[in-house]
Amino acid sequence: MLLLECPCCGVTAEETEFHGGGEAHLKRFGPESSDQEFEGYLFNRVNPRGVHFERWRHVNGCGKWFHAARCTVTLEVFGTYPAQTVEPPQILRELISSKRPGWQWREFT
Amino acid sequence: MSEPVTALNGATYAGVARIAELPRRGMITIRGSQESAALVAAVGAASGGLDMPGPGEAVIAADRMLGWMSPDELLLMLPPAEVAGALAALAEGMAGEHYLAVEVTDARALFSISGEGAVAREVLARLAPVDLSPAAFGPGNFRRTRLAQVPAAFWMLEDGSFELMCFRSVAAYVFGLLCTAGEGDAVGHY
Ligand SMILES: [Zn+2]
């Protein structure tokens, strides 16, 4: 079971108070994009064994969306950070590097 | 004009815990930036002088309460007869500002949970994924969470009892949950 801390209201609770929102930091490709880009935006998701970045919503709480970095093997949550963030924060990436040296997720290390 | 009634007509249950549906209370949802001085002043005027609650807290007075719902949402409870005046005070204080205030009195159901010792804590601990130990949750704490399968919020009073609100449409479900969790003997965990 995941224990997540909502960065919006400060509550720490187990995952049943939240709702998963899928992979984080997707870049939207809409009109004018190529078929390949649009397909990737709609369907292509990573399914890593290890470090992963996701969107979550504090659905049975303050109602806000946020981001979480976690390990899919151990369920360790490395940290949570605001939804208004377009890529994993540097400080969090450094923390993950100290725990999972050599990790990579999409283009981030 | 017809007489407003609560969802369960004041249903009660007495097991090891006492569960009671509470009488109707005026409720106003207020949304806006809590960092706005205008909002703080308007909420103060509308609530009859209640302080702003911090995150996860409720400011509770005899017949009114201000609960922290989210970084941009507050819940004001006060006697039903004062709702119109409070909405007018908010409209006046927030003229020209970005905000929302709407009455939700009859959208919600309210319950009281009490019992000897820490029985009320045990009832809620059976239903919500919340740390209800005295070190983590005490009088004046306010928490939005889920109760089994539905959203709810509860807060603790000075006497160690809890009050709880849920959507009116699930009042019977929540009352059933609370009664079931209030059966049996006290566990004595807390
Ligand atoms: Zn939250």
From TrEMBL, chain A:
**InterPro entries found in the cross-reference section:** SoxD, SoxD_sf
| Biological process according to GO | tetrahydrofolate metabolic process
Domain of life where this protein originates: Bacteria
Q: Which Pfam families match?
A: SoxD (PF04267)
Cite the GO molecular-function annotations of the record: sarcosine oxidase activity
Designated name of the protein: Sarcosine oxidase subunit delta
Q: Which organism is it from?
A: Pseudooceanicola pacificus
From TrEMBL, chain B:
Highest taxon, organism lineage:
Bacteria
Protein name per its UniProtKB record:
Sarcosine oxidase subunit gamma
Could you tell me which Pfam families the record lists for this protein? SoxG
Q: Which residues form a coiled coil?
A: none
Q: Which organism is it from?
A: Pseudooceanicola pacificus
